[in-house]
Design goal:
Elements lengths: L2 H13 L2 H8 L3 H15 L4 E2 L6 E2 L1 H28 L4 E7 L1 H7 L1 H10 L3 E7 L2 H9 L5 E5 L7 E16 L19 E4 L5 H12 L5 E5 L3 H9 L4 E5 H4 L9 E5 L6 E9 L6 H15 L2
Parallel strand pairs: 3-4, 3-5, 7-8, 7-9
Antiparallel strand pairs: 1-2, 5-11, 6-9, 6-10, 6-11
Helix pairs in contact: 1-2, 1-3, 1-4, 2-3
Protein name: LysR family transcriptional regulator
Pfam families: HTH_1, LysR_substrate
Organism: Sporolactobacillus mangiferae
């Protein structure tokens, strides 16, 4: 067993799929399957339950997963520090971004960064903001963008954008003529929300709970364009940032956005990285350059 075996095992465990892990690592599925089987054979234990639709960790697998994370992370720190020492202005970095945030804010920044720092191999991991924070916390990502509140004792950060969330309804909705809506008025509505790994979902659910009800969720999607389309078809209501809605062209005539009166729901975007944690040259450069880019907007 070597570090590559552990790295492959972690990818399968995190993505719950040999196929997805192989695609992410740019290797064949038989290759990654053999790597994981080698670990199981060496330890004499089954680490992955392969019987369901998604692969799950066995009890032994959970123990190996926890320890493998620490080993791979430590090895990565060693490689990063040596790389910084011997290969100045070179490195590798994966940034955690949700698709919605990436589309809205980062195309220009990514392009400029690539031109100014061609020695840095930059990749994007498209995760929901909640998963990005979890991955940074666990050392699986050095840096990423999250939404809303987070553990400030655990992360360094800088805020680069804030926006209100709006209620989005079909023009036939009784709320379509309202100047503003209270969350408690929406208890009987059909909710269209982001999946569990998105912070916006948790924010909406928590606010609804404070308003005294559990929302009836009828549809989930990670794509805001699809959510708007579903609202335009009268399928339910959604919550989206005002700046995102301003980008909507199609279906605009069949939807209405309304301010939420009694809620602290807002789209607060922060770049985060873990405290007391070694940052590679690539990560330090990314933080510095994105901070400068957003301060000039």
């Amino acid at each position: 067993m070597d570090i590559k075996h552990l790295h492959y095992f972690l990818e399968v465990a995190i993505r719950k799929s040999f196929t997805k892990a192989a695609h992410h690592l740019y290797v064949t599925q038989p290759t990654i399957s053999k790597m994981v089987r080698d670990i199981e054979d060496e330890l004499g234990m089954v680490l992955l339950d392969r019987t369901g639709k998604e692969i799950e960790l066995t009890d032994a697998g959970k123990i190996v997963f926890e320890q493998a994370q620490k080993i791979v992370q430590s090895f990565g720190h060693l490689s990063d520090e040596l790389s910084d020492l011997m290969h100045a202005k070179k490195g590798k970095l994966t940034v955690g971004l949700s698709p919605m945030i990436g589309i809205q804010f980062f195309p220009g920044i990514l392009s400029r960064f690539h031109k100014e720092f061609p020695g840095i191999d930059l990749h994007i991991a498209e995760y929901g903001a909640k998963k990005v924070a979890d991955c940074v916390s666990e050392g699986l990502l050095e840096v990423g963008v999250t939404v809303g509140h987070f553990d400030e004792e655990q992360f360094h950060s800088f805020v680069f954008f804030e926006d209100d969330l709006c209620l989005v309804v079909h023009t036939s909705s009784p709320f379509a003529t309202f100047d503003e809506v209270r969350l408690s008025d929406l208890c009987d509505e059909h909710f269209i929300l982001f999946p569990e790994e998105f912070s916006l979902r948790s924010m909406v659910l928590n606010s609804c709970e404070k308003a005294g009800f559990q929302p009836n969720i009828v549809f989930e999607s990670s794509q805001w364009e699809l959510m708007v389309k579903m609202v335009s078809e009268g399928f339910g209501i959604a919550f989206l940032p005002k700046s995102i809605l301003d980008r909507v062209d199609q279906n605009r005539e069949s939807i209405v956005s309304i301010p939420i009166a009694d809620s602290e729901l807002n789209w607060r975007l922060s770049m985060i990285w873990k405290k007391n944690h070694y940052l590679s040259y690539a990560a330090r450069t990314w933080i510095s350059e994105t901070r400068k880019a957003f301060s000039s907007i």
